[in-house]
Amino acid sequence: MARIITATIASLVLLAALVLVIELPDPVPIHIASDGTADGFASPAAARPLSIALPAVVALLLAAISWTRRRPPAGMRWALRLRVGAVWGVGGIMLATPVGPDQSTFFHGDEGDEASGRVSNTTTRVWNMDDLDAPVLAETFANDTTSIDHNMYTEGDLMYQSNYTTGLRIMDIADAVDDGPEEVAYFDVYPGNDNPSFEGGTWSNYPYFRQKHVVAVSSIDRGLSILRPSPRLASHRNG
């Protein structure tokens, strides 16, 4: 454990030193539009802390996973999977990627694949995580929408996806590993179009209220919606 902590701290110190000494462009591009051009910028002073924070979170997470794999306390390995948060991946951006109710199914959305044209429809990948050393891509679900996917959250057998211009999409994930997710409801907060762009729509949602079957959906340009989908959605596939 001491070696893991020491290696993690040393890596973070080295990273911080590199970020501080590297000469950054002014301004720094921090967001890429759907056409591949930068449309969001920040000053070097504002970008440096972010450049340290994102890899630091990943490093600490990997250190924790490494420790639990060597000596896992009861339930800890599953708890670490529960909410990964935001991870900047190579070739794309993976955001708010949750696990299913059985704690062994991982749902992966890449914010960059729709925007870049690598896929034609909103795509969610389903991973079987029974073996942490050998995750298996079980299903690739392409919805009939074309928007960019973003934050998604699971509650019971349902997954709530905030997918920018196509709004909130609710998926039945009870048999996601074998049959993939199935859309059972939606609420379009940006009816103007379904473009694979960041021009509007929903960025996130919250389905964890004490009152069941209530979800809050934020909209970039049209405020907050509080919804109450039918409780029967959870048993959709069973009639």
Report on this structure.
The protein has 239 residues and is α+β, with helices and mostly antiparallel strands. The chain has two domains: 1-71, no CATH class; 82-238, YVTN repeat-like/Quinoprotein amine dehydrogenase (Methylamine Dehydrogenase, Chain H), CATH 2.130.10.10. It contains five helices and 14 strands. The protein has helices at residues 2-21, 44-70, 76-82, 111-116, 176-179, and strands at residues 28-32, 38-42, 87-89, 92-94, 105-108, 123-128, 136-142, 152-155, 158-162, 168-172, 182-187, 205-206, 215-219, 223-227. The strands form five sheets. It has a four-stranded antiparallel sheet with strand order 8-9-10-11, with no helix packed on it. A three-stranded antiparallel sheet has the order 5-6-7. Helix 1 (2-21) packs antiparallel against helix 2. The longest helix has 27 residues, at 44-70. The protein starts with a helix and ends in a 12-residue tail after the last strand. Residues 71-94 and 235-239 have low confidence and may be disordered.
